[in-house]
Amino acid sequence: MTDFRAKRPRRRWWSWGGAAIGLALLAFVLWRIDYRRFAEVVTNARIEYLALVPVAIALEQLVRAWKWRQILYPLQSVDTLRLFRAIMAGYLGNLLIPFGVSPLLRSWLVARLERLRMSAVLATVAIDRLIDGMVFAILVAVVLSLAVFPDPIPPATCGSASASQRPQAFCCSQRCSGFSLCTSGGSPMRRAGCSG
Fold first, then answer.
1. What is the mean pLDDT of residues 83-96?
2. Residue 167 in 3-state DSSP?
3. What tens digit of pLDDT does each residue of 110-145 get?
4. Residue 189 host element (H or E)
């Protein structure tokens, strides 16, 4: 009984100490903001688009938390809002310590709150990143296959050669390598003047 009572004030001090550190770090971040420049940007911005930014960020992170919940489910069922808070705390840590500590911080928070092993939670974060990378690669491949890229070098302008001067000469542009060749009678010639 006495041990339990002794632990309660210690936990209270930990909570107050954590809150004080959080407020000090928040004051440090707010102190670094250039408020004059911030006011100029806000006054020139469109309010409706500006209001959509926090909503879009919150929805994106809620989807991210739900996805992480699905990966964590074999270990333990964790509430999506708790994971959302851990993700946002990780982003705050990234702002304060710019060394990519967000995955470590959110994994530590979830492992501590849910009494899970830190290594297991970190493994789920790694799986989450792997899924993100695979989806991004698939989307890039789809966009590249559907996109139409303009030819950087028009086929008609290849050096000083014209159709009347060199009837057999033609230009072929190679998009991948970024240069064009003029060929006459099957032999490649220089692009600058199409001279053999």
1. 88
2. coil
3. 999 999 999 999 999 999 999 999 999 999 999 999
4. strand 187-189
Q: How is residue 80 written in tokens?
A: 């999506």
- Residues ≥6 apart with Cβ < 8 Å to 175: 149, 151, 152
Residue 172 bridge partners (DSSP): 181
Give domain limits for the chain: 45-146, 150-196
Select from 188, 68, 190 the least CA-distant residue to 126. Answer: 68
CA distances from 185 to 146, 188, 191 (A): 35, 8, 15
Q: Report the 10 Å Cβ neighbour count for 161.
A: 19
Which H or E run includes 181?
strand 179-184
Residue tagged 């086929």 (tokens): 155
Query: Are 121 and 111 in contact, with CB atoms under 8 Å apart?
Result: yes
* DSSP for 31-99, written as a single string: HTS-HHHHHHHHHHS-HHHHHHHHHHHHHHHHHHHHHHHHHHTTT----HHHHHHHHHHHHHHHHHSTT
SS3 118: helix
Q: How far apart are CA 110 and CA 123, in angstroms?
A: 13
Task: Write down the pTM of the prediction.
Answer: 0.56
